[in-house]
Amino acid sequence: MSNIVVIKAIKLNNVLSHEQTYIEFPLGLTALVGPNGAGKSSIIDAAIYALFINPQNIRGFRGSSKKSFLRIGSSSGYIEVELSIGGKKYVVYRGISLSKGDEAVLYEVIENEKKKVLAVGVQTVLDYVRKLLSIPSTESIRYTIISRQNEIARLIEEAPSTRKELVLKLLGLNELEKAKEVLKPYLELVKSDIKFYDSYKLELNEIREKVKALSRSIEADRVEFARLENEQKILSEEIKRYEKLIELVKLYDKLSKAIGIVKELKEVESALSLCREILSLDIENFISITNVLRDRKRDLDEALEKLKTIENEINIVLKNLELELEIQVPSSVDTKGVIEYLDELSKQIYLDRSVKQAEFNIAKNSVEIIGRSANCPLCGRELSDNLKERLLSEAKNRIDSILKELDELDKRYNKVKLYIDNVKKLEKGRLEIQVRIENNRKIIEEYMNKYREIKNSIETVISKLKSSNFFTKCLDNSNTINVVRCIHRLAIETMKIYEEKKHMLRKLFEEEITIDEVSKKYTEVKNSIAELGFDINKININEIEARYKECLNKFNEVSMRMGQIKGRIESYLKMQEEFSKKEREIEEKLNQLKKSIEIYPVLDFMVNKLLGKDGLLAKILTQESRRLIERYTNAILKELDMGFRIRIDEEFDISVHTPFGELDIRSLSGGEMVSLAIALRIALAYTVFGRLPGFFILDEPTQFLDRDRRRSVFEIIKKLSERVPQVIVITHDVEVEELADKVVYVSKEGGRSIVREISELEKITETV
């Protein structure tokens, strides 16, 4: 009983006709009493909606839209259902809104009434609740522990075939049909595997015969390969002999050429020491210095001539200066002094002009003052018109005179500045020419020392060359530069010829070799050819090469045949490996097919006999579930002191039996029918859930019954509450009040449901 589920409380806010309702549900029998339409069923419907219904299925639940599930005038509301499961407390919150989707949260209430979120989202919460309650489906609730209005006897009222299908569905027996459909393709696959087994067996035998044939072919090719390998070895030795002979003959030809080169080298060697001495001279530098001296001498002469020209131009400028400006430049000063003299003169002219400018400004101000004043600005005496006119005339004449003097000063100042620029320009040119002259003289002096030194060395070498006929053609020239160039060129050419011959030797032998080594190798090669049984003077290289090619062709032919055989062997081995792989694959398939053959009887039994809605397992489970429902129903009827029991046949037809015989179920009284319906619901819950339900909800179980029968039904429900931990009954019949452990009265005022608990005192008072 540790996992007993009971409802602790339900809270409604703007749901159906309830604006704000909160009801606590204790253990025992709780009655929700009130007139029809007061909102009693709304409380249970709201709880069912919060715990089990997806908003998409609301029409199937109440046959209306989500808007009608909210209180009129409200755009949102919520439901809270507090549950106790195995001693743990849970709260399911369900928010309803017209502007958005439903909200749902499942909490676990832990220490200090703190809430721990377990699930969020409608479907997530619904799945979690179903898991907590351990129910297979929402539909199972409808036919077991919650009886909505007019549905208490629905299971009894259904046709036997419908009842059977419904019970099997609630028990999950329809999954057996699904399992059968799942296994059917596998059964067909196994049947197909059996057909393939023999063909794979035949294919395996054929492959094994092919592997044996390949093994025989591989062995024959290996014998032929060994024979060819021996022939190849003999040909290889013959080829090496001819290769050595050809190599020696070619080397002999090289050495013969080398002997000729050696003779030429010996002829050149006599002049090598003189050539090295010539090349040790700094000929290029001597020629370069000679050219530099010639160029610098020419440039020096040009600079001296240019200096004379500039000095003449300076003298002409000074004479023009004296004539045009009517001044006398001191003859003792140089060009720099002339420039300084002219600078001072320009400053004096500028100063004189400033004085004249001041006089002009004073005169101009005087004219303005006299023109606008009636009195003399100096003595304060009144000025007559004649006097003012005379003073103005004198002042204007003075202004005209000053302007002329200013113009003359400007012209003189500009001329002085122009002469200063010309003299400076000429002086700059003169200084540049002097620097050029000085540089040329220094360079000439510096290069002359090197020239004399190199020339002495050259003359010493030339004196030695006169004793050799090798350089005679160069010494006939009278020009020293031409002689130097000639002997230098001839020395380079001689050294080049010597190096070329040496290079030819190196190229012939691809290594450094001396003249003595050439002679030695020549003799050795000649002897080696003789040792091979050939006379060097009678050897025909073309014939030797023809024999060599013949051996080589035979060798290549044998090698090619060996390669073909090797490739064939590798191909056979590869085919053998592929056949072996195929053999393993077929063996594996045969093993798998063998498993299919072995499993076929079991799979065939499961598909065609065991599974499915008509299979053995379904029949056994159907029989067992029928037996359990019948057993539990009769046990509950006995506890309720009912004087009858039932039997459920294989087609789920229900028959009623009393001590006096079998009765038609339709002959049961209203109270007996309700008792049977309750017993069946609890029995089905026991069978489906595997345990006694923790709560049981009955909505209007006594509808259409008279007073006495209602009293009997309520007494039965009271007995049920002693067996089931929590029973909640919704009724408009007040007879239940004296039997219930808690009574909640529901009424409607102004379209709003009002909930009020009735105390024990009120119950007694009402009874009295």
UniProtKB/TrEMBL annotation:
InterPro entries: AAA+_ATPase, DH_dom, P-loop_NTPase, Rad50/SbcC_AAA, RecF/RecN/SMC_N, Zn_hook_RAD50
Lineage: Archaea, Thermoproteota, Thermoprotei, Desulfurococcales, Desulfurococcaceae
One Pfam family matching this protein: SMC_N
Alphabetical GO biological process terms: double-strand break repair
One MF term in the entry's GO annotations: metal ion binding
Listed PROSITE patterns: DH_2
Coiled-coil annotated spans: 197-245, 293-324, 437-464
SMART domains reported for this sequence: AAA
Record's keyword terms, sorted: ATP-binding, Coiled coil, DNA damage, DNA repair, Hydrolase, Metal-binding, Nucleotide-binding, Zinc
SUPFAM superfamilies in UniProt: P-loop containing nucleoside triphosphate hydrolases
Protein name: SMC family ATPase
PANTHER family cross-referenced by the UniProt entry: ABC TRANSPORTER ABCH.3 (PTHR32114:SF2)
Domain DH: 101-317
Superkingdom, natural source: Archaea
